């Protein structure tokens, strides 16, 4: 499936603009991670783009999130490795822990988007361009800040061989690349 076909599929199931922006941010981060790690950029990018395809289908029910995505994506002929990573980004529903680099990258990459956006929004100009790596790593320690962002999931970047600082730098750079699209 091409990226354009994946976007059409995503928009068929997702209407919320904020969730679409989150998907685009996750895609950008996963592409950047794939480039840095010498992995398949198209595959990783599609996983980032499609990881929350079922969130509106399940009405935000996290006990079904990932399971429905697996059905939608398998039915659309998506690469089984992408389907697996998408399903496993919500490992709680699977009954097993993430074990592959692809699974860890998707989970960490899609999770850090929330921390980056939240950090940008406390800056006077509300722009990702103003955010520094140090600001993100500092906010990682502030549990009350963006409290719904799972810091342990972000730290799974270490499972793919990246320090937190390097992961933040890659992720922030990727989101800066699409800041205009995100309105940040």
Detailed description of the structure:
The mean pLDDT is about 95. This protein has about 180 residues and is an all-alpha fold. It has a single domain (about 5-180), classed as Hypothetical protein af1432 (Orthogonal Bundle). The protein has 10 helices and no strands.
Q: Could you say how many structural domains there are in total?
A: 1
Note poorly predicted spans.
Answer: none
Total E-strand runs = 0
Indicate the CATH architecture: Orthogonal Bundle
Going by helix content, strand content and strand pairing, the class is mainly alpha
Instruction: Kindly report the CATH topology.
Output: Hypothetical protein af1432
What gross morphology would you assign? globular
Query: What is the C-level CATH assignment?
Result: Mainly Alpha
Order of helices and strands: HHHHHHHHHH
Whole-number radius of gyration? 15 Å
Sketch the major β-sheet: none
Give the SSE map.
Layout: H1 3-13, H2 17-37, H3 41-50, H4 67-75, H5 80-88, H6 101-122, H7 133-140, H8 151-154, H9 164-176, H10 179-182
In short, what is this structure?
The protein is mostly helical and 184 residues long.
Summary tags:
single chain; Hypothetical protein af1432; 184 residues; mainly alpha
